[in-house]
Amino acid sequence: MADMSPFFRRGAARPLQDRLVTLIRKPGCHLCDDAQIVIEKVCGELGVPWEEKDISQDPQLHDQYWEQIPVVLVDGAQHTFWRVNEDRLRKALTD
Fold this sequence. Notes:
This protein is α+β, with helices and mostly antiparallel strands. The protein contains three helices and four strands. It is about 35% helix and about 20% strand.
C-alpha cells in the first residue's frame, strides 16, 4: 500500500527540513558559543536547517534582544534565551 499524500494526512507535523532555527548572537559571547554547540547537535541529528544572526550587524535585532543574548528562534518565534536546553529544543522541533 502506497503512502498517502501529505495533503490527505490530518495533523501531520511540519517536515523537519521546512523548520528553521535561528541563533541571534554577538561576537565574543561564550553563552552564544555554548548555544551554537547545542543547535548544531540537535539540528544536525534532525536534519533541521539553522542560521545565525549577529546583533552587532543589525540595529533592530540589537534593540530587541541585547539583554537576552543568545536568543534562539524556532520558525521565527522566540524559543529561549541565555541557555539552550537540548531536550527542549528537540521537542519543539519534533512536536
